[in-house]
Amino acid sequence: MPTITFITAEGKQHAVTAEIGRSVMEIALEKNIPGVVAECNGSAACATCHCYFDPAFAAAIGPIGEHESDMLDFTASPRRPESRLSCQVRVADALDGMTVHIPAVQ
Ligand code: FES
Prior knowledge:
Blueprint: E1 3-7, E2 13-17, H1 24-30, E3 50-53, H2 58-61, H3 66-71, E4 83-85, E5 98-101
FE2/S2 (inorganic) cluster is lined by residues 25, 38-49, 71, 85, 87.
Organism: Sinorhizobium americanum
Cofactor: [2Fe-2S] cluster
Keywords: 2Fe-2S, Iron, Iron-sulfur, Metal-binding, Plasmid
């Protein structure tokens, strides 16, 4: 299973193994990573699963969807080029070693 490292806004690192096919949001909740709220439970309707993904993995993550991009305009923390909704990113072998920064505010 790939390893993903979540980094909280305070800089604490949590390296976890992630089941392929699950969303990164689901992994964060399952592993009790603080800071990912996910109010809509993965429906891409709340933007409280917003995270900053390692730009080196952008191609492996895949392109951002139009709806996801629209929702990222409503994040509580600033949108950046590496912003994604973690509920819309699926774990794959190609994401092994990726870091995911959790914003200070969701
Ligand atoms: S969990 Fe609501 S947008 Fe991702």
